[in-house]
Design brief:
Strand order of the largest sheet of chain A: 3-2-1-4-5-6-7-8
Structural class of chain A: alpha/beta
Strand content of chain A: 5-15%
Largest interface: A-B, 95 and 95 residues
Oligomer: homodimer
Order of helices and strands of chain A: EHEHEHEHEHEEHEHHHHH
Distance between the termini of chain A: 32 Å
CATH superfamily of the largest domain in chain A: NAD(P)-binding Rossmann-like Domain
CATH class of the largest domain in chain A: Alpha Beta
Number of domains of chain A: 2
Number of helices of chain A: 11
Radius of gyration of chain A: 21 Å
Helix content of chain A: 40-55%
Chain lengths: 296, 296
Amino acid sequence: MMELKDMTFGIVGLGIMGGSIAQAVRANVLDEPRATGRILACDVNAQALNKAKSDGVIDESYDDSSAADMIKKCDLVYICLYPHATIDFLASHKTDFKTGAIVTDISGVKTLLVEKVQSVLRNDVDFILGHPMAGGAKEGYVNANGAYFANRNYILLPQPWNKKENLDLLKQLVSAMGFTHIVETDYVNHDHKIAFTSQLCHVIASALVESAEDERITEFGGGSFEDLTRIAMINAPLWTELFLSNKKELLGHITNFEKQLDELKRDIEKDDASALEAYLEDVRKKRILMGTHVAK
Amino acid sequence: MMELKDMTFGIVGLGIMGGSIAQAVRANVLDEPRATGRILACDVNAQALNKAKSDGVIDESYDDSSAADMIKKCDLVYICLYPHATIDFLASHKTDFKTGAIVTDISGVKTLLVEKVQSVLRNDVDFILGHPMAGGAKEGYVNANGAYFANRNYILLPQPWNKKENLDLLKQLVSAMGFTHIVETDYVNHDHKIAFTSQLCHVIASALVESAEDERITEFGGGSFEDLTRIAMINAPLWTELFLSNKKELLGHITNFEKQLDELKRDIEKDDASALEAYLEDVRKKRILMGTHVAK
């Protein structure tokens, strides 16, 4: 069986995610003297590729037009693109993957992906759906960091076609990259949960920023507003795509959130101190319990 | 003129705020060899007092029944209590303050305070309204930290009765404690702004926690939900008081926030990618600008 340290990795899209994956693999998988593995990367951004190459993070770089040449050499391909671009890449490179290759993605929505890629999958290529739960306001290879994934959650969505040994290999890889908690689930549940933990939060943070009277409001900040809106330094095209690709789930969560907000509002309007205090006590208990399920 | 290093400070309420103030004053104001100043503290919690005394943070400790004895000795009294308790303390100790003393508070709502304390203020005691903008999920002296205020905002609300030299002295003190940005405003504006940066954020974080299906949701977390709800490990009695004491302003902000949420919801429902992307681009720009007004 293939060992991680001797595999050829292909990173498609060398932004903050692809770049951090490349750096984490370089530092934690290919760092032993007898490792023969390599990291190849393709991106439209030549600057990112040159930086990664001169840093010794990647061994070979490819642009859009030569991506097929890279794919052909890879034992494991990490597609680090937006959801629709991931679907397009899988479709246009269907015939390029090496026999036996593992292909995985990082897309934040999965139902769309599963529905669209079925027709472009090959029996001799194992496509494993995955979602590294790490994000932030930063973008681009310039912000990539091999330690980015320390103590983070990773979601894997095993499909009927996935080979157990490939799933095991990917788990081994993500653990080596720093992820400490791997959750396995199906794509319906994934999209339902992520619409809450990720998309709803970005909607709330965005609405909160827009409801500010002016940008000088942070002069009156003590940390709360800053914490709630850090993710509002948002990548607009990416999140537009994520919101719309998971619309039904997201709208359901927004509605539930609005109901809770209304309940609080009513208690405040009615000056109902005891209802309010009971509500907040419950919030406190739940949030403390939630903390025990966080990877870090 | 009195110098900070030679003053007797009285801390009323030795929780996380009072405790952190005591530690910051000890470390940054009374740390020079020729300083003759002292820190006295009163609290109902004997354990907190003993700890602060054995740590060398405070010089003398007082309980509820002996608070008057402490107050009589102090050049500067820091009342670190909840809003209503602050009002009660000022009223019941009206005759105890030393002539010429500076008295200041940390209450998160001010209109209520200004309305209620007018009748208990003395001409020979200078009550200065202030609000250290530092907070978090932690409570109690056990979590106090002298470095808690580094790079934070401090709001001062000068009143007609305040003496300039006393305001200057307090500014000097809060700068020494680590605050890097002092904003001066009136109590109406304070309550309006704080209802947004602080209270609205706590309402949102609480509603978000309650709208979660279960406490295991954080297994699917990537940091966003965790960041948005850290402040939901909330002190229920304190925040019940703060919400209700600033009800009108808070309800106004909740309504504005709901309008923004509705706009986003409509764009998502209508699959309006261009409106959504434009909205998020605006959010991003605004939030980046807001970052330039943050003290740290």
